[in-house]
Amino acid sequence: QVQLVESGGGLVQPGGSLRLSCAVSGNIFSAYGMGWYRQAPGKQREMVATITSGGRTNYVDSVKGRFTISRDNFKKSGYLQMNSLKPEDTAVYYCNLVIDLGGRNYWGQGTQVTVSS
Fold first, then answer.
1. What span, in angstroms and rounded, lies between the C-alpha atoms of 90 and 17?
2. What does 56-117 look like in DSSP terms, one character per residue?
3. What is the tens place of the pLDDT at every residue in 22-76?
4. CB atoms within 10 A of CB 7
5. Are strands 3-7 and 18-25 parallel, antiparallel or unpaired?
């Protein structure tokens, strides 16, 4: 059973930084991509950043130049470095994992990020 556990959320002032981590447990016998999504109150969940098994990254326009997604395959972990945070970044952030072969999807439980003065 594959499980994802996010950490690193919290309250930060505008302009501040946070680093989210996603720890993957369980056996995965295929290459996989990882991603971060977020959902603000009253809004739909949106893709923030993704990274393929080959290391290719993609970002939603609103975070380009501020957020960086990365992964450590040895540690089976994913990360989202968030800089220059804005109040509009406030949301619950979810880690996502997609198995390349078959497309099976896994989600973490989410971690709250609040940007406020």
1. 12
2. -EEE-GGGTTTEEEEEETTTTEEEEEE-S--GGG-EEEEEEEEETTT--EEE---EEEEE--
3. 999 998 888 999 999 999 999 999 999 999 999 999 999 999 999 999 999 999 9
4. 13
5. antiparallel
